[in-house]
Design brief:
Two copies of one chain form a homodimer.
Chain A: E1 3-8, E2 13-14, E3 19-23, H1 28-39, E4 43-48, E5 60-63, H2 67-77, E6 83-86, E7 93-95, E8 110-116, H3 120-126, E9 132-138, H4 143-153, E10 158-162, E11 171-177, E12 183-190, H5 191-205
Helix pairs in contact in A: 1-5
């Protein structure tokens, strides 16, 4: 039974015990992809940041908070998997300093120094041994070009390009690009249907027939 | 019929179209207080930041995203209300500059300048004409002292002090302080029960008997 790792949801990078940086990812696309993979008879592990939605009960779910925690959880699971679908929106900057107490307001501006978090897909691609990787790219500008660049930099087999409007709602609109930069699919509609379309492509192009 | 304004949930302060500062407020305590007020026969307006929970259908809900939007919505409603329960956790810093496109990673640190957002309770207290105000204070240190200071600065009638552990879960633990700095109640348990306890205090101490 193929074992698929899915990263899902946002991560959080805390400034202090209360405030954090994040994004509006809801985990809905990750849930839809987990359901599509389970329907195809795959074993599914979801490494998920904090979300309010519930994943399919047949999936193994590993909850994490920060990007570093998401990476560590993935590094433990990925060697045992056949492929990765990286649909999470990990917070890619973290405050250099995390204050142990809630920062009290002073009336003055607060200077925050942010540093980049590790790129989960890049890190997993470095250690891959025959596994396929499908990543999502969220872009607000030059979507197709930037997604193609990400596919190469992150050594993916397919990349799914979408925009911020897809981040929270029930519907989405995506383009799937292959390593030649070709748009191999344009899918739109409810996330459940788009996930079935993406998973069909994965099965056809990346999964060995039994 | 008394009309009560409840602020609830977190707010978001965006850096760019994807990333934002926020906190883990879920809106559950706001929902519980709305239900308690409705049960007492009050009319309820909830001004809420982005949450996944659903408020009681009998409450009027005004959804907002940022702290400035929350303040503007409250300023429109509060003059027609008898009292305010400020349980929202508005983001109290915002990026000075909001980038129109997603900030691309460069490998270098990102300096972010944050400025304070307006304090919603202070702003509403300035314009109050006989309305009562109950605010929540989330503190990680010197909880009782800081809550008492906030009560005075924000000209509240009661203040409910809690900690970050209360922010997301089903349960909470609070202390209610009066303007003399006296702890008038210590309540813990499911948020629905704690909300009933808080609302009972509001009825006894702040609401005119019909």
């Amino acid at each position: 039974m193929p074992h698929i790792l899915i990263t899902s949801g946002p991560t959080r990078e805390y400034l202090d015990p209360v405030r954090f940086l994040t994004n509006g990812s809801s985990g809905r696309m990750g849930r839809a992809l987990a359901a599509a993979a389970l329907r195809s008879g795959c074993e599914v592990t979801v490494v998920s940041g904090p979300v309010e939605i519930a994943y399919p009960p047949q999936a193994e779910v590993i909850p994490v908070v920060s990007t570093a925690q998401m990476l560590a959880a993935c590094q433990a699971v990925f060697p045992h998997c056949d492929g990765l679908i990286a649909v999470a929106a990990p917070c890619d900057y973290r405050p250099l300093e995390v204050r142990p107490q809630k920062i009290a307001k002073t009336g003055r501006p607060l200077h925050l120094e942010l540093v980049e978090t590790p790129d989960i897909v890049v890190a997993l691609a470095e250690g891959k041994r025959g596994q396929w990787i499908v990543a999502f790219a969220l872009e607000t500008k030059d979507r197709r070009l930037r997604a193609a660049q990400k596919l190469h930099r992150k050594r993916c087999d397919l990349i799914v390009a979408n925009g911020p409007s897809a981040m929270h709602g029930p519907d989405t609109e995506v383009e799937v690009l292959d390593p030649q930069g070709q748009v191999v699919a344009q899918l739109s509609g409810p996330k459940e249907e788009v996930a079935l379309g993406i998973f069909k492509l994965i099965r056809q192009r990346l999964m060995k027939s039994p």
